[in-house]
Amino acid sequence: MRGADTFTESLFTMRHLDDFVPANHPLRPIKQMVNAALLKMDALLGRMYAADTKGGRPSIAPEKLIRAMLLQAFYSVRSERQLMEQTQYNLLFRWFIGLSMDDSVWVASVFSKNRERLIEHDTVIELFNLIVQQADEQQLLSGEHFSVDGSLIQAWAGHKSFVRKDRKDDQDADGSDGESKSGNDSDNSEAGNFKGQKRSNETHASTTDADARLYRKGKTASELRFMGHTLTDNRHGLVVNARVTQADGYAEREAAKAMINDARQAHEDPDVSITLGADKGYDAKEFIETLQAMNVLPHVAQNTSGRRSAVPDEIAASVGYQISQTKRKLIEQGFGWAKTVGRMRQVMVRGLEKVEQMFVLTMSAYNLTRLRTLGSVRLQTGA
Question: Has residue 346 been placed in a domain?
């Protein structure tokens, strides 16, 4: 018998939101890891707000904000407005964030404003560190063998915003007064028409994002960019350090020195040598000597194209060097995930601090997906 095409909504329901989420859904173990980290962040989150005794309207719970921001990375949600729209009707999103079926969804602008407070208090950095700590407690990190690399991040600013620093308010991007030599308005003097002009970061700056830098690498076109850097542990390719700098020719090596120094300081035994794998771009004498001074073995790919490599031949001939060269390729998985799933190919925030916070949050999301996968493998193998 054919069923009737009718819809009758129940006045009450006895089902919980958790009932709609499959028992084997990948977000279940991720939510457990996130909640464990948030529990340790309670003191930090408490300092962000005024005491309850002062009264006032309660803010959005910061724990819910953080879980919502992670969802945005997991599901490639383009904007806060789209995130709020999906949370309105997506029961999975409500369950992960911690909203009941009857709770109202926040206005996108309110969500964005509250997110700024999280950035100001470095809560994203603390979340990242606690997730790395969980990986260490599960013995998923070697703590001694690392890889480093950098990748370009396109800024949320266009070429038309890149104008002379010394221009006046009534001048166009090329420095002209907006009129042609004949006295008529000239199309050639419009903002963004920089054909034939020499532009550099010394003489020009973006009016949209002053922290972005015009930069090109290899055969890519010059764009306003930042540079993201990660340090991964070679055992499973988990990101243990992440940061963003302005894009220039020295940024990768300078960031690498800072990150490996943090790893060096975190090691319990200062006499134990740790290793650092990297590509040919890091094969510079000053960089190699700095690593050796920190008791770090430079497992950097040798660059012998018309020059002598700074990496000692005895190190390049070792078995550990060959292993590092194989393991360092795992670092590309993090960048690939961040740019395709995490939408970090071009950021939608402006300013170095905000870009770095979003980059670190995205790498936190990547680590969570890796930890879930590694946990599943352990269960299947009985390890």
Answer: yes
The 3-state DSSP class for residue 28 equals helix
pLDDT digit string, tens, across residues 73-125: 999 998 899 999 999 999 999 999 999 988 999 999 888 888 888 888 889 99
First-to-last C-alpha distance (Å) of the chain:
53
Residues 238 and 332 in one domain: yes
Q: Is 10 domain-assigned? A: no
CB atoms within 10 A of CB 233: 24
Q: Could you report the per-residue pLDDT of 208-237, keeping only the tens digit for each?
A: 999 999 998 877 788 999 999 999 999 999
pTM: 0.89
Helix spans in 138-270 (H): 251-266
CA distances from 73 to 124, 245, 331, 340, 378 (A): 13, 21, 18, 10, 25
> Shortest CA distance to 240 belongs to which of 70, 364, 73?
364
Contact 93, 27 (CB under 8 A): no
